[in-house]
Fold Mycothiol system anti-sigma-R factor.
Amino acid sequence: MSCGESHEMDCSEVLDHLYEFLDNEMPDGECVKFEVHFHECSPCLEKYGLEQAVKKLVKRCCGHDDVPSDLRSKVMGRIDLIRAGQVGPELDVTAPLHGEKTCGAAEDEPAIAPEDRPATQG
């Protein structure tokens, strides 16, 4: 996306890193560049506002549920493996961990592959 105007930061670069900005996960110097861009570029400011509103809505609707401690441990363990370089980020995070059963599968029963599941009507 580009608004057609000349900016210090290109609109596509701003939008590529929008969630880092929203989540306060970038250095302060970078944040200032984003703020300047939003001040100059109304299409990017609009996109920022929309994403910020969605984030607030999700937090309001889903932010009250506690994360099960075992799920948190598994996720943090995978993050540690990725950071240590032992596992690439392309790992299928939906795949079960070593020795972990898939949802709904009995001990001696294999999980049903998505293509083998009956179709649901919506």
Q: What stands out?
A: Residues 42-62 form the longest helix (21 residues). Residues 79 and 85 are 10 Å apart (CA to CA).
